[in-house]
Amino acid sequence: MSSETGDVRAPARGGFSLSLNDPGVRSLVYQVLVVGGVVLVGWFLISNTLDNLARRSIATGFDFLSREASFGIGESLIDYHPRDSYGYAFLVGVLNTLKVAVIGVVLATIIGTVVGIARLSSNWLVAKLASAYVEIVRNVPPLLQLFFWYAVVTESMPPVRQALNPLPGIYLSQRGLWFPVPAADPVWGAMGIALLVGIVAAFVMRRWAAARQARTGQPFPTVLATLGLVLGLPLLVYLGGGAPTDMDVPQLAGFNFRGGMTISPEFFAILTGLVIYTAGFIAEVVRSGILAVNWGQTEAARSLGLPGGQTLRLVVLPQALRVIVPPLTSQYLNLTKNSSLALAIGYPDLVSIANTMINQTGQAIEGVALIMGTYLTISLAISVFMNWYNKRIALVER
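Predicted structure:
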């Protein structure tokens, strides 16, 4: 029966309505319009940029990455020569950035965890010192901290020819810290492979031990077994390879040292500054995570006779991780992205090397795209790993 007021009939049972009054249809239309608008704007910007570059006869594309770089790089994890390509030089910068990020994340996590726990200490002096550390480093811009640590090395250390020699083969000067390392030998590569095998084997063993204990109730000495696999396998390879003892000792040659290994002032400044700065934020993340655990958990652990250290390690921290990990991910991302400040003190990270490439080739758009793409890839990799870890430690109600 039709309505005299002209109301629209409801669709028949099982029918399909394309009316904009349907929230689902309306939402889909809006999303299509937004995506279409973004694509249209992107197409306009890209086409306009390419047209302007063509009018000015400016080269485009990434073909320049195969050309000779013709500039030196102060330090690198892999062998580099100015005759290598721009692409290889950029790879050196990426590895230098990853070196700062990986070492910085590990050290900042350790220091931040210790300071965060210290802020909750019952010792008045320890708690106040930890609080002062957090308040100071979090309120001083990281760039100023980098300048401070760089000045500490370059201004307070003697020149190369008057380098400090606290131990045989170790020299400290304005050029950095030089120390002996084992001489090149095939056994070191084999030991690295053995270390990786040991880590994988230890991971498999710990999962097996956990399943065995859940099934039988019998614990397994996982700590000793892990140490045996991680340290024992490389040691066996070292002994089987002849146990080489030759050392590459730094020697003064001209205006600098040759041989051994060095920690440059630039690397020291960027690493120390970022670690100390980020550790202050991680300390607050850890402190808030511990406070989020109900105090009854601590009381229950103490009623069972667990000392304070075991209560924190076995009861409180495992439960606090579900609160700690999400904001901790943000701090890891911040540390990685703040490594771009290395440009200010001359450390050859990916931004510094990309800027040199841009100045020599004039292809700024491609250079900036490489920087953005690299940081995006690193950040997404960190986020994926931390999200996986967060799901793995999440409390599951059964």
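Summary: Confidence is low (pLDDT under 50) at residues 1-10, 12-16.
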